[in-house]
């Protein structure tokens, strides 16, 4: 195990990837249940939408955050807003009408 690897890890990218994977999964659920008004899908997507809303947003510019990688850093505003928007669209597809 290379102990120097942790210092080279782009923690912002790791957290952005996790958030975008969650949002992509929400979009897939939205596509699968589009127009069905499925209550389980609506509950799940509403829960994820609230989770994205409640995540702490960093006040720093993403370029500055990337130059100061920390394992506990908050996500940048643009990533969270994009993920929240994708999840809201997915929820809208399920609800329909």
The backbone outline, from C-alpha atoms, is: elongated
Q: Note the run of SSEs as H and E.
A: HHHHH
Helix proportion range? 55-70%
Structural class: mainly alpha
Question: Taking all residues together, what is the mean pLDDT?
Answer: 85
The largest sheet is: none
Measured distance between first and last alpha carbons: 54 Å
Number of strands: 0
Number of helices: 5
Low-confidence parts: none
β-strand amount: under 5%
The Cα radius of gyration reads 16 Å
Give the secondary structure arrangement, pairings included:
Elements: H1 5-8, H2 11-32, H3 39-54, H4 62-67, H5 77-95
Précis, in short:
It is built from five helices and no strands.
Summarize the structure in words.
The chain has 97 residues and is mainly alpha-helical. It is built from 5 helices and no strands. Helix 2 (11-32) runs antiparallel to helix 3, helix 2 (11-32) packs parallel to helix 5 and helix 3 packs antiparallel against helix 5. The longest helix is centred in the N-terminal third of the chain and has 22 residues, at 11-32. The radius of gyration is 16 Å and the shape is elongated.
């Amino acid at each position: 195990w290379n102990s120097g690897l942790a210092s080279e890890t782009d923690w912002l990218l790791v957290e952005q990837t996790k958030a975008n994977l969650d949002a992509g999964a929400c979009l897939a659920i939205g596509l699968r249940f589009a127009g069905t008004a499925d209550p389980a899908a609506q509950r799940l997507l509403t829960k994820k939408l609230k989770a994205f809303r409640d995540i702490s947003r960093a006040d720093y510019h993403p370029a500055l955050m990337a130059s100061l990688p920390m394992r506990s850093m908050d996500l940048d505003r643009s990533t969270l807003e994009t993920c929240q928007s994708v999840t809201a669209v997915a929820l809208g597809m399920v609800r329909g009408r």
